[in-house]
Amino acid sequence: SQMAEAFLNKICGDHFEAHSAGLEPGKLNPLAVEAMREIGIDIAQKETQSVFDVFRSGPAAAGFAYVITVCDESSAERCPIFPGVTRRLHWSFTDPAALSGMHEERLADTRKIRDQIRAHIEMWCDEMCAVEPGR
Fold first, then answer.
1. CA angle 104, 10, 106 (to 5 degrees)
2. What is the mean pLDDT of residues 121-128?
3. Checking phi first, is residue 117 left (phi over 0); if not, alpha (psi -120 to 50) or beta?
4. What angle do CA 27, 29, 32 make, to 5 degrees?
5. How many CB atoms lie within 10 A of CB 135?
6. Could you give phi then psi for residue 85, rounded to 5 degrees?
7. Helix or strand or coil: residue 68?
8. What whole-number distance in Å separates Cα of residue 38 and Cα of residue 32?
9. φ, ψ of residue 60 in degrees (nearest 5)
10. Which of 1, 25, 60, 95 sits at 20 to 30 Å (Cα–Cα) from 77?
11. What integer pLDDT is reported at residue 60 of this predicted model?
């Protein structure tokens, strides 16, 4: 989700402010950090957050326009629910932490995931900016 947050803020940061959070925050995935660094986006210093903390005291206190979950449905990963948020989207991407194989194989797969996330966000941002100009 940190990759999605970084792309959303980079691609449509003038329309939306993205925040990433998980049910069980931990350390950033080193493969995601490396894959993003390769394209000039540094997420290494980003701290993971709990959805509960974000919802209680973060921007959610003022209300989110959208909640977008990126949980991998094929691995039956739990996705958070945000009560009261009417615009929910779910984009299923493989979790880089679930990849197996040697480092180079996992990094190559993480690059593919990164590129899928970026393409999806570019498409969504184009649609949203056309539908909601000035947001």
1. 10
2. 90
3. alpha
4. 145
5. 11
6. -90, 120
7. strand
8. 10
9. -65, -25
10. 60
11. 52
- 117 alpha carbon, distance to own chain's centre: 8
Out of 3.60.15.10, 3.40.50.980, 3.40.50.1950, 3.40.50.2300, select the CATH number for domain 2-131.
Answer: 3.40.50.2300
Q: What is the pLDDT of residues 31-90, one digit of tens each?
A: 999 999 999 999 998 878 887 777 776 555 556 778 787 877 655 456 666 666 667 788
pLDDT score of 49: 80
| Residues paired with 69 in a beta bridge | 90
Q: Are 27 and 45 in contact (CB under 8 A)?
A: no
What backbone torsions phi and psi does residue 89 show, to the nearest 5 degrees? -130, 145
Q: Where are the domains of the chain?
A: 2-131
Rounded to whole angstroms, how far apart are CA atoms 48 and 59? 15
CA angle at 132 for the pair 131 and 135, rounded to the nearest 5°? 160
Whole-structure pTM value: 0.82
CA 127 to chain centroid, in Å, comes to: 18
**Contact in structure between 2 and 70 (CB atoms under 8 Å):** no
* Secondary structure class of 106 (helix, strand, coil): helix
